[in-house]
Specification:
This protein has no helices and 2 strands. The protein has 23 residues and is an all-beta fold.
């Protein structure tokens, strides 16, 4: 996958994580 914008959350198969790459 390509780099997603900071406003987009990382959706996994079980949970949703905040964009850590933005930190």
């Amino acid at each position: 996958m390509t780099n997603l914008p900071c406003s987009v959350l990382i959706i996994t198969s079980v949970r949703v994580e905040p964009p850590v790459l933005c930190l």
